[in-house]
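Cross-posted from the bioinformatics board.
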Amino acid sequence: MTQYKHIRCTINGREVDRMIDVRASLTDLLRNDFRLTSVKKGCEVGECGACNVIIDGRCYNSCIYLAIWADGKQIRTLESLLGPNGELSDIQQAFVDEAAVQCGFCTPGFIMTAVEILESGVPYTDDQLRKLLSGHLCRCTGYENILRAVKKTMYRRLGMEMP
Amino acid sequence: MYDIKAIYEAHSVSEAVALRQAHPEADIIAGGSDVLVQIREGRRAGKELISIYLIDQLRGISLDQMDNIRIGSLTCFTDITRNHIIQRYINVLGEAVDQVGGPQIRNIGTIGGNTCNGVTSADSASTLFAWDAIVELTGPEGVRRVPIQDFYLRAGKVDVRPGELQTAILIPRESYENCHGHYIKYAMRNAMDIATLGCSVNVSLSKDRKTIDRARIAYGVAGPIPLRAKTAEAFARGRELNEDLIEGFAQAVLDDIHPRDSWRAAKDFREHIAVECARRALRESIRLAGGELV
């Protein structure tokens, strides 16, 4: 017999409550119940980072996060970055400008990690950025353009000249 | 959807113990980065789970009245690395768990899960062995403490008895005082990889910093469970800091370790890197302790 749990959480700034199947991953919840399809189903074992979302300010692979644990949490997905008229945020535009997107499957996950990095307000070195981005797999770009997009946005937000 | 029969959620340790007694067949799930993957693989499919992830009292790091370090079992790797008590007294543990998986995994993965999983390659395990950590378990009869060497029974099997759950990992004061250590993870890539071999060394030096008072060394993936290299430790005791110490210590580990051939690496190769890691980790530990080789 299917077991359900009632949860309340905030998704992209909106308070929601749902009766959910306890077997659901957070990826299942976000995609199926809320149509947040930026949250990709990649490896589904926590290796590729395509399903990455921000929960209470930190990045998690939502594929290996049970939906029942989302109760009371603040969850952010890529969809939250768009402006009121669908404008891209600076980090999304930087991915476009730097050709950091090819097939695009890894992009939402990478960008949410970039959001956590950028919001920390810390000027990271290249090696630190590489390590912070290391929880994502991209099979197209070779990572350099992704690193450059994050770095460029980091310097711009810090009001510093990019070396 | 995961293939899970039922989930029972605990919000406190006493609730978890009660659920453990009520559902003896159920597996415990902490952060889930091992358990959920094993459900997906089919190894744990269709099981009942007791979720302890929401027990906030099991998170955090503190010093107790005796100045022992207490790490709540649900403390995630990221929080261990960033914690000031860890950075001050046992920085090597923070460095070791900073090499687990990638950033998202280190946010969800817990030190309790890493040890209860019972695998030899766990990045926290060799350092916990090398620092004589104590595992605290809470069950229907109360609290039980076990040295980590006795907690690991065999590959994949740890000493968590019916009704119990692991509630903390303790690092005794006499273990960390005046002690400096270094961990080396040997793997094929820097992130999202499992150790081919892990080596954790720590030393405390004599007052004049000329000789070794105590050296400890533990390995992951040098046997079915993490292990200490006692022959090497005995060799180092009381010796002066010189190249003979480094070489004798490193070669002596071969008497203690027994790695195997696996698809990740051959036995011979693991022995080779075990010796080299012992050399490098001992050198670095001595440097961190303020000693100089003569």
